[in-house]
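User: Continuing from earlier, I have the next pair ready.

Assistant: Great, send them over.

User: Here they are, in order.

Assistant: Folding the first of the pair now:
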Amino acid sequence: MPIYAPLMRVSVNTELCQGHNRCYALAPELFDVDDYGTAVVIGDGTVSPELEDKARLAVANCPEYAITIDEAS
């Protein structure tokens, strides 16, 4: 039986983001900052298994609740 790992993706609601950039400080592998200081997701937002804890930490530390995680099963 194959081992199945669910796909995790992060996304940033740019309308909620106020540019605190805690996500970028905590997980620069997953987030970047645009020219206006708004957080953006790197790539398509897919989170590798070794970065899942960092993704959850970024969500927990966003004061504007602008980051969400989608875990497809």
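And the other member of the pair:
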Amino acid sequence: MLPPASSMAVAAAALLTGCASTIPTTPVPGSAAAPVAAQWHAPLPHGGRLADLRRWWAQFDDPLMLRLIEAGQQVSPSLAQASARIADARAARVARRADLMPSLDANISASRGRSELGMSPGTTASAGLQLGWELDLFGAGRAAADAAQARFESSLANWHDARVSVAAEVATTYVELRACEAQVQQAEADAHSQARTAQITSLAANAGFRPPAAADLANASAAQGHVALIRERARCDLLVGALSALTARDEAALRRDLATGTAQLPQPPELGVTALPAQALAQRPDIHAAAHDVVAASADAAEAQAQRWPRIALAGTIGTTRVASGGVSSDGTVWSIGPVTVTLPLFDGGARRANAQAARARYEAATSIYAARLREAIRDVQTALVTLDSTARRSEGVANAASGFERSYQATEAGYRAGVSSLFELEDARRSVVAARGAATDLQRERISAWIALYRALGGGWSPAAVHAAGREPAP
């Protein structure tokens, strides 16, 4: 039995267990603690079929883009860092859980010597087990374990968020490159048209049929068109370099692969937003990570508060010992229970209280960050929806303009062949067609980028259930 003083200390400590703090559950978007809008304020793109976000990339009609996305994910430093953070969080979780359980150590020792003059040398050997256990009466250990578990969950979600971000970045860069290649083709046609106009205008001016100012203007336009072509080619080169850096692909090999589909923009499958804002945001890994950061901060606050109360530790040993000296030996089992150590915080200059207040402030900061993440997520989705609606509304007008300029050019070309229209009118019509085609390419690029942004804003098909089903381990 414990000594009376120790028994009273344990009993007094047990009476204070009700002071331990409780850990709140993970915040849910749309709850009172995490309010979000009740509905989307931008039109929903229900015109297309509903695609499964988890297989969305595979439905693109461009296999090269898929290979580049996979290459980018394999070499991404952000993914490597996220994997390292998962390993750290897993180790911390194991350590915090181990702190709740008793510790058991084995020890073996042997010695030989003579402790007093005139006595024969003696041998002592022992083997035993040593037990130690700190009772978690006030929940400090449980709070630390809860915080470690929450940080592990957060690190898993952040890994998935990094994976989705890398895929979106590679895809967006690839789309920008293909659109740039299409613009280069239009810029080449425009520069060629302006050069022909400048040549004809110069001949007409030398013959006295056109004023010299017209030739100067035509030459200036041709020079400007050539400068625009050089600028577009340089932009394409920069995008190739960016894509090479993102995927760690050799630039020469990458250019050979890109040459097979020059100026062809990948066509994504359309997807629809069928969930309410709160349901959609629950599928975002960054929101899931921020919610678990709130839980971890709350657990840290509970642990810091529990550190202000007494701590009780138990110890015990059991083993066997053999002593041999002067031809006489003895052996047997030895054991002990105790000591029971009760640590009562009396005076620390306010350090524990300051730590508790700081932990509470970190919890409030985590809740603010979580609320801000929710607002940013709503904005991301709304921005993508607005852009998709805008591009859809503009598509008919751009198509009509391009079709009209095409018909005008064909009519002008027929008139030129019949001798009714001049070459100046033909080149002017050609430039209008080039501008209309460039506008159509820009609109197509903007729309594809908006689909990618919507995919990213909806979480890329990630779900908490998928992580739990996989044993809370990231995919290799």
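Worth noting for the second one:
DSSP finds eleven helices and five strands in the chain. The mean pLDDT is 83.
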